[in-house]
């Protein structure tokens, strides 16, 4: 399943992204050159808790926040996670650290603002899960601890007795 959703960004994929997508989405020099692993952009819209639209050099692009999954827009706590993300980064400048491209062609990236990791803030607030299928880097262990703390303190979606993870919820509701 993971292989179908995310493809790792490797050198060949970066080259393909640079040549084939440069005219239609943001692919700054920073993405196309290994010596600069991130780029700056402005968040112009929050689609939902873990999907944003960024603008750079007059181009916009949808970006999926890496390593987390927030409730869907029509799922319980979906509106709260979207509002949290909106209040945190809308119209703000962020650092985008590319990680992958998903099956929808969206850039999957770590989103940072002033040394704050947006995904981590959602987890700490109890408004996101650490994504069980795609978060396997060392930081994910820290995030799992933060998720357990949010759960034990009944923050956000952990206030429910048995919250349903978005990847399970989608299977039940979007057949």
What would a concise description of this structure say?
This protein has 175 residues and is α+β, with helices and mostly antiparallel strands. It has helices at 2-5, 11-21, 29-32, 78-89, 118-124, 138-152, 166-173, and strands at 6-8, 39-48, 51-56, 59-65, 68-69, 93-102, 107-113, 116-117, 129-130.
Question: What are the SSEs and their pairings?
Answer:
Elements: H1 2-5, E1 6-8, H2 11-21, H3 29-32, E2 39-48, E3 51-56, E4 59-65, E5 68-69, H4 78-89, E6 93-102, E7 107-113, E8 116-117, H5 118-124, E9 129-130, H6 138-152, H7 166-173
Parallel strand pairs: 4-7
Antiparallel strand pairs: 1-6, 2-3, 2-6, 3-4, 5-9, 6-7, 7-8
Mean pLDDT: 84
Helicity range of the residues?
25-40%
Number of helices: 7
The biggest sheet, with number of strands, parallel, antiparallel or mixed sense and barrel status, is: 5 strands, mixed, barrel
Structural class: alpha+beta
Overall 3D shape: globular
pLDDT below 50 for ≥5 consecutive residues: which ranges? 1-16, 18-36
Succession of helices and strands? HEHHEEEEHEEEHEHH
What does this structure look like?
This protein is α+β, with helices and mostly antiparallel strands and 175 residues long. The chain has a single domain (2-173), classed as Beta Barrel (OB fold (Dihydrolipoamide Acetyltransferase, E2P)). It is 35% helix and 28% strand. It has 7 helices and 9 strands, in the order αβααββββαβββαβαα. The protein has helices at residues 2-5, 11-21, 29-32, 78-89, 118-124, 138-152, 166-173; strands spanning 6-8, 39-48, 51-56, 59-65, 68-69, 93-102, 107-113, 116-117, 129-130. The strands form 2 sheets. It has a 5-stranded mixed β-barrel. The longest helix has 15 residues, at 138-152. The two termini are 16 Å apart.
């Amino acid at each position: 399943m993971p292989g179908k959703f995310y493809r790792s960004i490797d050198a060949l994929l970066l080259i393909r992204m640079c040549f084939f997508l440069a005219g239609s989405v943001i692919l700054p020099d920073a993405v196309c050159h290994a010596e600069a692993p991130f780029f700056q952009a402005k968040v112009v819209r929050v689609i939902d808790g873990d999907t944003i639209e960024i603008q750079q050099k007059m181009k916009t692009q949808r970006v999926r926040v890496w390593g987390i999954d927030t409730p869907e827009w029509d799922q319980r706590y979906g509106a709260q996670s979207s509002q949290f993300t909106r209040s945190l980064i809308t119209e703000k400048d962020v650092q985008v650290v590319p990680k992958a491209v998903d099956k929808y062609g969206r850039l999957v990236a770590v989103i940072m603002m002033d040394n704050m990791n947006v995904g981590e803030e959602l987890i700490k607030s109890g408004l996101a899960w650490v994504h069980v299928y795609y978060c396997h880097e060392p930081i994910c262990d820290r995030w799992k601890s933060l998720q357990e703390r949010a759960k034990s303190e009944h923050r956000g979606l952990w206030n429910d007795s048995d919250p349903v993870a978005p990847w399970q919820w989608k299977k039940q509701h979007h057949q």
